[in-house]
Amino acid sequence: MSGHNKWSTIKRKKGALDAKRSKIFSKIIKDIQVAVRESGPDPDGNPRLRLAIQNAKGASMPKDNVERAIKGSSDKDAKDLLELTFEGYLAHGIAIFVECTTNNQQRTVSNVRSIFNKFNGNMGTNGSLSFLFDRKGIFDIPKQNYNPDLELDLIDAGAEDISEEEESVIITTAMEDFGKMLKKLEELKVEVENARLQRIPKETIRLNKEDSLKILKAVDFFEDDEDVQNVYHNMEITDEVMSEMEE
Questions:
Q1: Which neighbouring-strand residues pair with 38?
Q2: Which residues lie below 8 Å from residue 247, measured CB to CB, with a gap of 6+?
Q3: 200 phi and psi angles, rounded to 5 deg
Q4: Cβ(100)–Cβ(83) under 8 Å?
Q5: In what side-by-side order are the strands of the sheet with 122-123?
Q6: How confident is the model at residue 9 (pLDDT cuts 50, 70, 90)?
């Protein structure tokens, strides 16, 4: 199977360029705490927690931090965590989908709305943009952990696309096959750097470089907010813009 999941490449490269380690750890800690609250502290019986711990390992998060996050899941702030989504448009009709985890809904709504306003955007009602994105399972595997001989097993487990990038192999599945693929990779003892459901745009909008960089600046503002876990958009990242991002 061949193909090129450019969206995953963009998310991976941009994440490596922009994200601060503390922000990455903060996201993972929230994932762990929500998972423990939902299904308990035992990873063997809690697939979501097992996934969060796996992502923590992929991000080189110290084991002590993971254990503290699990133990801290009974704290009041952790118990109050809510998962929220926000949708809206920025300039030039670019759709933005923001996923948050927060213990203060009023603060998060205010912060997200202010970023939309700052960049002359409009926050819409939940569900208004869902038709623009597909939810896909994305698995990022370091090349040294991947064996091409396993490809048929992965296709049987639901792989829609297997793309070889510079340093990793990206596997894409339908949302309903995410758990099946996660289980298969565990059975095959394939160590994954990061795995999660992502919102992939069905179609993208191409802008000139200047306007594209303005949109990406807005995306950065969203991503830098302490309550934001993920930000998705439907703007095409051209090679020219990619080069600018990598400088």
A1: none
A2: none
A3: -105, 125
A4: yes
A5: 122-123, 82-89, 95-102, 228-233
A6: very low
DSSP state of 126: T
Closest CA to 200 of 26, 34, 8, 24: 8
Asked if 163 and 216 count as a contact pair (C-beta separation under 8 A), the reply is no
Using CB atoms within 10 Å of the CB of residue 59, give its burial: 0 to 12 exposed, 13 to 18 middle, 19+ buried: middle
19: pLDDT confidence band, cut at 50, 70 and 90?
Answer: low
| Neighbouring residues of 76: CB distance < 8 A, sequence distance ≥ 6 | none
- Per-residue burial over 10-34, b if 16 or more Cβ lie within 10 Å, else e, is bbbbbeeeeeeeebbbebbbbbbbb
Q: Which single residue is written with the structure tokens 């958009």?
A: 233
Residues paired with 102 in a beta bridge:
82
| CB of 210 closer than 8 Å to CB of 188 | no
190 is written with which tokens?
A: 């394939």
- Specify whether the CB–CB gap between 137 and 177 falls below 8 A: yes
Distance of CA 104 to the CA centre of its chain: 21
On average, the pLDDT of the chain sits at 89
* Cα first-last separation, the chain: 32
Instruction: Set out the domains of the chain in order of their start, with CATH numbers.
Output: 8-79 (1.10.10.200), 82-123+205-234 (3.30.70.980), 132-201 (3.30.70.980)
